[in-house]
Every structure is written in C-alpha cells, then in structure tokens.
Automatic annotation (TrEMBL):
This is TniQ domain-containing protein. Keywords: Plasmid. The lineage of its organism: Bacteria, Bacillati, Cyanobacteriota, Cyanophyceae, Oscillatoriophycideae. InterPro entries: TniQ (IPR009492). It comes from Gloeothece citriformis (strain PCC 7424). Residues 31-177 form the TniQ domain.
Length: 471
C-alpha cells in the first residue's frame, strides 16, 4: 500500500490588472472654496499650480501637454504667441477670470491636465450669456490683509478669492476693510499672475495684516458708496456661490423677460421715470429691453437694488409673463436720497479742504514736521486714511521730514567724532592706550559707540596712532 498524497488547493491568483483611476498630467490640485462666496479665482489657482510644480506660469503654460490642448485657430500658431495672447497683455490678464474665450481656453486646458472638473466656477463663465464683457475684472491684484492674516494664523491655504478682483469691488465684506492694491513695503501694484498669493511680486514681503495699512471702509468711503458696496459685494458673492448648483447657465432671455415684466408691472411710470428709479439712463433701459446690448454687472446690480429682487433671483428664476409675475416698484424716495447726499458731500468737502490746507502748510513749514504730528493736530490718529486720500502730499511731507532727520543725524555724528578725537589724542599724549572700554567709561553717553561709522572712525584713529587693533 502506498501513501496517497493529498495536495492542498490554494486560491487562484487573479491575473487581471487592477483598475487604476486615470492619471492626470499635472498635479490634481483642488481649487479652494468652490460653491462658496469666497471661491478661488482662476488666476490664483494657476499661480498655486505653478508653485506646486516649482516652475513659473510661463513655463507651465508652455509645456507640450498644455500646448497640444490649446485651441490654436484664433491665435498665432507659435508657443510664445499663444501664451502671450492668453496672459501676456493687460486686457488679456483681466480676462483670465472672466467670461470670454481666454477664460474658457484656460479652463478647458487646466481641467484636462489636472483632472479637476469644476474650474469654470473659478471664473464668471457661468454668467457669460447675461452680461457684457467690458472691464469686468481688475488687472492688478487687490486683497484684504486681514483675510490673509487670518488664514495664515489658522494654518489654512493662502489664496485669492474671485470676489476681490471684480472691477467694482472695493471692500472685503467680511472685515469691512478697504481692499488694498499696493504693497505696503515697496508701493508696487502687483499684476495678476505675477506672484504667489499673499506675497509681493517685487519685494516678496508678506501682505497680511499690518496695523498701519489696514483701512477701515467706514473711514474711507462716503456713506452712500459704502452702502452700495455692502449691496454689491454680497450680490456678486451669491452669483459665485450658486454657479455650481445651477442645472444650466442662464441666458439673456432670462433678463429680457424680467425687464418686460418689470415694464408691464410699472406701466403707470414713463420709461424715463422707470429708468431713473432703476439707476439707468433712458437709452440704457431702451437698449436692454429692445435687446440691443447686454447689461453691465453694475447695471444689473443697480436694477436688483431698486427693485428689491436679488441678483440671483433676477437671473435664475422663471419670469414668464404667463405666470402673472409682477414686480411693482414701491420705493420712490430717490429725490430724498439725492438731497441728503448733497448735504453729506458738502460737509465732507469742507473737511477735505481743511485737510488739504494743513498738509500744504506742512510742506513749507520749518523745521519739517512728521506726518503723524500733522495729522494729530487735525484730530486724527491713523495715517492710512491720509495716504489713501492724499498720497502725493503725504509722500512729500514724509520725504522732507526724513531728509531733515538724516541731516540732523549726520551733524550729530560729526560732533561726536570731534569729541572722541579730542579724548583719544589726550589719552595718547598721557601714554594711555585709548581702548574702546576706556572710552566707554570716560564718555557720559556711550551708546553711540555701537554705531558703525563711529566704530570705524575710532579704529582709524587708533591705527593712525600706531596701536595694534583687530578689525
Ligand atoms: Zn477680509
Ligand atoms: Zn513689495
């Protein structure tokens, strides 16, 4: 009898390749805040993406993988030409976050290469059918120093929200701060795409909060301008936030039906009166309802403001006349607002004239006063308002007082050098070596011995007298 060996049956090896999700050519960087009022801008995304790859934006965009995805038809058929057309020139730069072809081209390329599929919400492309193209966005960056600082402290990613770059946006709604557009260290205006979010393109300094360049919007803007900003910014932020949840992009008929219903609901008013109430000119209103042109964003927001219908509602809801919609305008207090405005601006002009007079006086005053002393006399504490409103005059005052202080310190140095020379020569004549320690004990105010020009002067004298000293 022989042993029958029983072999163990092992599970079989699966030789099918595992399913690997598609790889993206570029790092699949996630955009920040999509679907929120603080959604990132496409220019910010591009800068962060190029930073993550450790290359400049030009380098990134001239990658072969990028180039094959560009639509070359309207552009000159060379790499440099295409990139220049996309981001090289001023007006093209502002178009990157916008609603036109450049924004669309970049979104298409970036989506293919990063595998992200929501990059169009970093622009205003969703709303391209309902507003006209002119100057929607800024060319230079503007930012809220307090937002930057807050994100840094909370260790969040630093980026630039789309809302900051609208041509019309002057404040950060959250912090009620004026959006800054100049580096506080080197006064540079920073071009979009020229540096990483949060840093100056020229001096590389951090652009987060510094108390001397925080500008409270209440101090800077007139009341009516501030309340306009406080209506405009949330309206635009609503547009940005709602875009990803819309089933389709609204088209111009949306707005056309709205205007028709509005005209019909207010047929007791002449078109001229209605235009006035809406904050438009008669020609503008006519052009809109006859479908000659698309309204600008400020016009849309002005209409929304006067009708008390939110911008999003105006541009996304069904306004068909068949639905018996009625948008009766009830507020006719525009004249009242206007007369109030006049009083307010008269008072502001009066105090403005007083400030200008004081600043001009300071320029001829001798000895030249510092800016802070001038504004203290006017009853203010913070110089930022003055730098914002009267930059030329302020810079002249600061320049004069700086030069004056510089001259003073030069004169001081000369006096001290003379004094030191006298002591050193006296000690030398007595046969005593004039060491720094000895000088320190002999001179009543010895703090200046630490200053470089004084140290050099002493060293020179010691050497001239034949003492051996280390440099
Ligand atoms: Zn802010
Ligand atoms: Zn700078």
């Amino acid at each position: 009898m022989h042993n029958t060996k029983i072999f163990k049956v092992y599970p079989s090896l699966n030789t099918n390749l595992p399913i690997i999700p598609e790889r993206s050519v570029l790092y699949s960087l996630e955009p920040i805040g999509v679907g929120t009022p603080y959604c990132e801008s496409l220019t910010s995304y591009l800068t962060r993406l190029s930073y993550e790859h450790g290359v400049s934006i030009d380098k990134l965009l001239s990658l072969n993988d990028f180039f094959t995805h560009y639509e070359k038809e309207p552009y000159p058929n060379n790499r440099h030409g295409v990139i220049n057309h996309l981001i090289g020139m001023y007006d093209n730069l502002r178009a990157v976050n916008g609603i036109g072809k450049q924004a669309q081209t970049l979104v298409n390329c970036l989506e293919k290469l990063t595998g992200q599929n929501n990059l169009s919400y970093l622009t205003l492309l969703t709303w391209s059918e309902i507003t006209c193209h002119r100057k929607l966005f800024k060319v230079y960056k503007s930012w809220c120093p307090r937002c930057f600082q807050e994100w840094k402290l909370q260790k969040e990613l630093i980026y630039e929200p789309l809302i900051w770059f609208f041509q019309e946006a002057k404040i950060c709604y959250k912090h009620q701060q004026i959006l800054t557009n100049q580096c506080p260290y080197c006064s540079t205006n920073i071009l979009l795409l020229s540096s990483s979010p949060g840093f100056c393109s020229k001096c590389s300094q951090w652009l987060g909060s510094l108390s001397n360049y925080e500008l409270d919007s209440k101090e800077i803007l007139k009341d009516e301008e501030l309340s306009w900003q406080n209506y405009l910014i949330p309206s635009l932020q609503d547009l940005i936030a709602i875009a990803p949840s819309l089933l389709k992009s609204p088209d111009k008929y949306q707005f056309l039906t709205f205007i028709h219903v509005l005209l019909k609901s207010n047929n007791t008013l002449t078109k001229n009166q209605l235009a006035k109430v809406l904050g438009l000119s008669f020609t503008q209103l006519q052009a809109y309802y006859q479908d000659f042109c698309l309204p600008s964003l400020p016009s849309l927001i002005s209409i929304s403001h006067s009708t008390n219908i939110s911008l999003v509602k105006m541009l996304t809801e069904n306004h068909s006349e068949g639905l018996d919609k009625s948008y009766k305008i009830t507020s006719f207090n525009k004249d009242y607002v206007k007369s109030n405005k006049k009083i307010g601006s008269y008072q502001k002009r009066k105090s403005r004239n007083k400030i200008i007079k004081a600043l001009k006086n300071a320029i001829t005053e001798n000895p030249p006063p510092t800016l802070i002393s001038v504004i203290k006399q006017l009853g203010y504490k913070n110089t930022s308002y003055f730098y914002y409103k009267f930059p030329e005059l302020c810079h002249q005052i600061t320049k004069r007082s700086k030069e004056y202080r510089h001259q003073l310190s030069l004169k001081n140095i000369e006096n001290i050098q003379n004094e030191i020379e006298e002591i050193i020569l006296y000690l030398h004549a007595q046969g005593i070596e004039p060491t720094i320690n000895l000088l320190r004990s002999l001179m009543p105010k010895s703090g200046f011995l630490r200053h470089q020009p004084i140290r050099e002067y002493i060293l020179k004298l010691q050497k001239e007298l034949g003492y051996f000293v280390n440099d």
